[in-house]
């Protein structure tokens, strides 16, 4: 599938390709459709850079900018400029995607990612993910804030802590009334 890099987003202009990518993994966001169903997609699809890199690495898309084909190395460098701790966040993203989960940006929840078991519109994201470095301090206030947020939106808060080049440790926080 041919896509185009426009600033810091990737656009799938072909409507059939948009529909196919969205319905086979819930990649991207259809322009102007807030809660899309695959059969309703009749507009271009916008992918963020992390999704685009993942799809490029998995040979699902090709990316062009000004009619020049973009390489994986170019995309990695671009992602490093756009995302703080990109390598770690991408490792977590890839870990969930490779296991069959649907993973979206978690900005509206104040975290790095929201993770779905089936996909948006089919189920609610049961997990909120925040990526930490092994050396990052985690304060008790930070844990309480994360727990309150997750509990309010009925999700489990998970700390994802990359280890090495391809492993991720997870720490899930559950809350209960005493």
Task: Please characterize this protein's 3D structure.
This protein has helices at 15-23, 49-57, 72-82, 86-98, 140-152, and strands spanning 2-6, 9-12, 29-30, 45-47, 62-65, 68-69, 102-105, 113-116, 127-131, 156-163, 167-173. With 178 residues, it is α+β, with helices and mostly antiparallel strands. The longest helix is centred in the middle third of the chain and has 13 residues, at 86-98.
Hey, roughly how much beta strand do the residues contain? 25-35%
Distance between the termini: 53 Å
Radius of gyration, Cα only, in angstroms?
Answer: 17 Å
Approximate helicity band:
25-40%
In short:
By secondary structure, this protein is an alpha+beta fold. It is built from 5 helices and 11 strands, in the order ββαββαββααβββαββ. It has a 6-stranded mixed β-sheet with strand order 3-4-2-1-5-6.
């Amino acid at each position: 599938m041919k896509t185009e890099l426009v600033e810091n987003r990737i656009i799938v202009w072909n409507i059939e390709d948009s529909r196919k990518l969205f319905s086979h993994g819930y990649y991207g966001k259809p322009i102007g459709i807030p809660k899309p169903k695959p059969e309703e997609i009749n507009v271009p699809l916008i992918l963020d850079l992390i999704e685009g890199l993942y799809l490029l690495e998995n040979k699902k898309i090709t990316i062009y900018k000004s009619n020049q084909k973009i390489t994986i190395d170019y995309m990695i460098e671009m992602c490093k400029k756009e995302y703080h701790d990109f390598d770690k966040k991408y490792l977590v993203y890839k870990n969930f995607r490779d296991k069959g989960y649907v993973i979206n940006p978690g900005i509206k929840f104040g975290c790095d990612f929201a993770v779905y078991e089936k996909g948006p519109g089919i189920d609610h994201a049961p997990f909120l993910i925040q990526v930490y470095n092994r050396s990052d301090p985690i304060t008790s206030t930070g844990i309480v804030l994360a727990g309150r947020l997750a509990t309010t939106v009925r999700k489990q808060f998970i700390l994802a802590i990359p280890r090495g080049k391809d492993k991720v440790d997870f720490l899930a926080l559950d809350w209960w009334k005493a």
